Amino acid sequence: MKNRIDCFIPYAGEAQIKQTLEGLKAFESVGSIYILASEGISGNTYAGCPVIKIDSLRSTEAIKSIASNAKADYTLIYTKQTVLALGYFALERMVRIAEDSGSGMVYADHYKLCGTDRKNAPVADYQQGSLRDDFDFGSVMLYNTEALKKAVQRMDVDYLYAGLYDLRLKVAQSEALVHINEYLYTEIEEDLRKSGEKMFDYVDPRNRAVQIEMEKACTEHLKVVGGYLAPQFKSIAFDSGDFEYEASVIIPVRNRIRTIEDAINSVLKQKTTFAFNLIVIDNHSTDGTTEAIRKYAGDSRLVHILPERGDLGIGGCWNQGVHHPACGKFAVQLDSDDLYKNENTLQTMVDAFYEQNCAMVVGTYEMTDFNLNTIPPGVIDHKEWTPDNGRNNALRINGLGAPRAFYTPVLRDIKVPNTSYGEDYALGLAISRQYQIGRVYDVVYLCRRWDDNSDASLDIVKQNNHNTYKDRIRTWELQARIALNRKNK
Q1: In a 3-state reduction of DSSP, which class is residue 103?
Q2: How much helix, strand and coil, in percent to the nearest 5, is found in the chain?
Q3: How many angstroms separate the CA atoms of 35 and 53, rounded?
Q4: What does the DSSP 8-state code read for residue 124?
Q5: How far apart are CA 436 and CA 408, in angstroms?
Q6: What is the DSSP pairing of strand 404-407 with strand 360-368?
Q7: Dihedral sign from CA coordinates of 287, 292, 297, 302
Q8: Where are the beta strands (DSSP E) in 283-400?
Q9: What is the mean pLDDT of each run of 10 residues along the chain (489 residues)?
Q10: How many C-beta atoms surround the C-beta of residue 435 within 10 A?
């Protein structure tokens, strides 16, 4: 198994590159090793290895340079600028799985070294709907060189940030991307933030230029695979059903004694030109939340539901609220941790339905700590959304924003998945298949981040489970859109 792999390694300093090269050269399966450098190396070779000058590893130019230099059967791309430590016979194992599976690329579980602590870092299986650009393959990807070169030949847009993403999408159009459920290498972990701090990176306004490129690459991919939807939407007359209330705020809650009254009060102080109510689905709370809600029983606008069922997630609670006879024409979300920005939020959200003729409206929120002090990244406005392409880009990103509001007849028809994660995202994808989603770009919502948030600090297994579920939602939706396009041809 000699000289089967050409390796492409980023340069980040003498110590990093020296140790990584020593590790690679110990494998007889390794052929040529190329060093990818944007700075720090003046010559054309380093330690006997050719140097390829690049602007960024994630640029189209860098990917094309890799493809033009790759000659071996397989091409290894390492994406981190830290020392890579490969496991015993790791590369031989990756080549064998690549050959046995006939895949276009293989990637593996690995370890992360956090200081002196080595932790397991399993990754998720790739599927048709794994379209998010931050899908975690780990830092070592072994491509079939022929598949890589064929994909690069179809890369006709020069990206600065989306080149590596574009490569993966194009390979996946005709080849399998295979996950090896074995721990084959160790990488150094530099990002030690909690999961709840990382999850909003993709909507950080500082990353907007990156997001624009990623959207373009994803949209082109959807056109190739038949999942792209043109900007043609069903119109809504808003005359279905007989509703006593124009709007209902829906709050599912379980054990939020510290925050539930703040949420309730932020609703009851709303100023509107229409009648509204508040439906609280109290999902078997045991910490005093139920008693706190009962303090507002004198306000006829509050509907307090105590479900008989014991198997309801957040989505199931939403179904209970939406299908209640007191639910209004529009159902507006408020999480039990959060608050409306001011007394005009509900009016603003409802007005958007009529102004934009949409079945769902998504607002803009501000990240705060428990005491409502603004925290990074601050305002989350999803301004990358466009009326024409938002529903296509929605297949790439991991969420649509908050607060979310729905035209109740449509929501009753689709129904909310009975889960406690991703149910809102699934709704957004399903609704956007046929209807326009409206946007409100003024801040109307305060999203509290604190230790009791369900996603504040998840272990890697839980994060993978969440991401896999959202990838599955995307897979189902992509399949539905492909079938719809075939039907409409």
Answers
A1: coil
A2: 35, 25, 40
A3: 8
A4: P
A5: 15
A6: antiparallel
A7: negative
A8: 302-305, 330-333, 339-340, 360-368, 374-380
A9: 91 90 94 90 85 94 98 97 94 98 98 90 98 96 98 97 98 98 90 46 68 96 98 96 96 97 98 98 98 97 97 98 98 97 98 98 96 94 91 95 97 97 96 97 95 70 95 98 95
A10: 19
